[in-house]
Amino acid sequence: MSRLLMESLGWALLHSLWQGTLVALMLAVALITVGRRAAHARYALACGALVLALALPVASGWKHFHGAPARVAMDLSVPRAQLRVDDANPPPVKDTAARPAWRLSPVAASPAWIDADMAEDGAASGFESTVLTGLGSFLVMAGLLLQRALSQVEAHLHWLVLAWVAGVGLCSGRMAAEWMKLRRLADRALPAPEAWQERLDALSRRMGLRRAVRLLQSSDVDVPAAVGWLSPVVLLPVSTLSGLPARQLEMVLAHELAHIRRHDFAVNLAQVLVETLLFFHPAVRWISHVIRVEREHCCDDVAVAASGNSVSYARALTALETLRVLPGTPSPAMSALGGSLPERVRRLITLPTSRCASRWAAGASVLTLVSSLAVAAPLTSLLLGQTDTAPRPGDEPVLVQAPPIPALSRTPPVPPAPLPVAPPAPPAPPAPPAGVAAVAARVAPASAPSPAPQARSLGSRAQRELDRQTRVGAGQQLSVAQLIALKNAGITPERVQQLTAMGYTPTVSNLVMMTHAGITPDYVQDMNTRFGRKLEVKELTHLRHLGVTPDYIQSLKSAGFNIDDPKALSHARAVGVDEDFVRGLKDAGYTGMSLEELAHLRAVGVSPEYIREMNKHGLSKLKARELMQLRAVGVDPGWLASMRKAGVQTTDAKTLQRLRATGVDANFLGELHDAGLKDLSVDELVRLRTGGVDAAFIRKMRGTDSK
């Protein structure tokens, strides 16, 4: 690798630190603006930010690599003698006209912009002359120190590049191992039952997929996953086929097909490549995390559109989580349980705010934010142009008397050949440094900056914030949008007084949200009393939308369940925990559980009838966790009765769960019995089933042995 190429890589890595941070900050502002429910817009913004975070360092390295000849030519045109320091400890000199050479170059005693100011004003006072000359000397010294620091950094850039290459190699090796593991899983997987393959094909056609998607089952995975791009497959755990109801499994398959339709596997491959190249950058890691979260939200929206019920889909995700045996680990595969499951469930069951911006306004906001991300590219070119200034063709060399700091070259000093010094042309005054802005203000009045067009790109967020702060009935000015929202919600002065009497501030946001939800003073008083604290407006709104009433809370408390968290209560209500379900669990002896356990039981289908049937087969006094696991893998009364007839009399919950999860049923046992395999242990049955050994294979092998 040539030295110039290594330098270019090193400077690109250094520039990526501030460039990636800037892009991440701009993305954060954009995400706040578009809102949490605009998953597709947030996903597009995050992908654009990731591309920009890689493109800017590449542009920096490219500019440094191709700007080397121009920098060398400029270095030869500027004699280094004009920026030398002859004495580190000069004696004090009172006469500013007789300052030694350590202060400035022998050509001039002050920067050009200070000389121009003094010439324009006629003659400056002795004090001003001393201050201005001293500032010019300070700038030269600071520039020399910065040049030395940059030279030291450049001298060690090769170590930075070598460390980066080593890091990229390690990350690449780890990801290659993950991809190979994923391919082995797909190769070892078995075809799913033909009925489910037909259902998947029908669902694919309904969702507009033209490519054929294979459905495979595997005992090595515990969550469904979409693998591949050109020849995609959907991997299903064996426990999912037997443990989820058909309707819920179709919803999960719709989520995986959404990944395939959106080409998420290919996008994830490019995303992993960027993560590998910029493995050291925390901002890039955060941007990549946003992409993964919003990708799952986008697929959730597609699955809900295909199924038509967001609450049922949330129940399917919760039931799928109970089937997971191993904790989630990062994988290149697209999984239905990617991202934060609690956050996804809350997003699905929480209704959107009743007052939102129109579609054209949201589209304009997204377009403006995407354009703002593109501004970083010319900004980088501008900043790099200050550090890597090259002379244009036709420009004459100009003696640099006291240049600003950015104009100093980063390359190590090279002894130049003696060149004839041409009479200096009057240089254009450069922008004064920030440290002497007050003095530079006298040279030319600063032009008024043009107003930034923020009102359009930040309109929706600013409007929401304004709604949260604007009080109704307090003499504050109301905007047109606020007046329309209040009118549509049917707000009256009596309603404003009513909300004030409840103890809540009558802002536009609170009035509209609580009125649309149908929240009354009696409801607020009862809910605050039962929770023992004053609930926030958002909490009250969510509870009311889900149908949580004081009577519902009382039925849970009377059954012995702890009610202390509004979020947990909302989740329980969303998955269908009602009074009859709670009463039946109490009669079956299950009380004192948390709301989370109650919601999980309901989500996987554990009902009072299921508990009674399991008691009939000898499975009594099971813990709530055991009931969830048995029901999740498909241990139902029908399967248990058939296993009893086949000779399996065990009452151990873990053993039954293991047999059902691997697909051992009465038919399989009967086939093995007919093939001559009797009195097999649980381990032997599981190994035969997961290894694909059936009665037909056994008979073939025995027939081969007999020949």
TrEMBL record:
Regions crossing the membrane: 12-35, 41-62, 131-150, 156-177
Describe the location of the Peptidase M56 domain by residue ranges: 152-326
Q: Which domain of life is it from?
A: Bacteria
Pro residues: which segments have biased composition? 412-433
Tell me which UniProt keywords the record has, alphabetically: Membrane, Transmembrane, Transmembrane helix
Region Disordered, as annotated, extends over 387-470
Bias (Low complexity) ranges: 434-458
CDD domains attached to this UniProt entry: M56_BlaR1_MecR1_like (cd07341)
Q: What is this protein called?
A: Peptidase M56
